[in-house]
Task: structure prediction
Amino acid sequence: MPYTVADIARLTGGEITGDASLVLNGFAPADRSQPGDLTFAENANYFARAEQSAASAILVDSAYTSRGKTLIRVPNARVAFAKVLPLFFPETPFAPGIHPTALVPASAQVDPTAHIGPYCVLGEQVRIGARSVLQGLNHIGANCVLGEEVNLFPNVTLYPRTEVGHRVRIHAGTVVGADGFGYVLDNGVHRKVPQIGNVIICDDVELGANVTVDRGALGPTFIGRGTKVDNLVQIAHNVTLGEHCIIVSQVGISGSTRLGNYVVLGGQVGLAGHLRIGNRVAVAAQSGVMHNIPDGEKWLWTPAQPDRQAKRQMIALQQLPELLRRVKELEKRLEAMGEPPAADPPPTS
Result:
């Protein structure tokens, strides 16, 4: 669907330099744009490419000027990009109704505006809210509750008693509510500890593909409002994620660890169990966290440490080969002078 520059400016709160009536038919990166397209530039390099492209208009957030392009000046080009893109690339709509191959028991409550796709299986007492979508091959265990405008992509599984808030998106292959990894050693045998809790997912959460969220041993595993979880993440039993966290791919969070709000975990971060991670903490990729982290700190490395401390140690390690070379040279000089190198001190008890 085409939009005018004026339409885009109204949506993004932007100011127009150029032709407000110009019709835009699409949104594209600068190197793939065509006449009639809108593109965006969040820095000088992007703007130079956009200026040379075939695009008709550019979203910008700095004081750029253009000879041949209409500009829409916005407070933040990246935010405007996120707002505009759905206009030109809307998601596929799903018609209300229940597919004839779906298995829905009489005790389930499915809002008439919801979409239950092919080969979905709903357990007893399941509740599905307004405009929610089960795209297909979804298994929803007994007593699960889904809020409004939930979107479950194919092959998502929710174990019994999972609670899902409004506007939650869960991508293909994700499993929510599987047994927590709980065992106790009993006479040489790993005896399973029953996991009788559940999972609670608050509003506006998104879980990527092939994420696993284990249910709590007693209470719930909890994912706070607005948190976004990337693909291939493992969230163990009784973990609590605060609001608006960003959890990047292949992170593993051990049982009963609690994260505050606005925490960012880089790819492949590992968190030990029973930790407390404060608000607005950032942990760099591939770090292994073994200790609590106070509010607002940045940690990295394995074992993870505050960023300045870790960087000093990294620099010291980089200098170690040169230091060893210099020590060997000094030892050779001492030997040439007839003085043997100092012996290692005896071990202390």
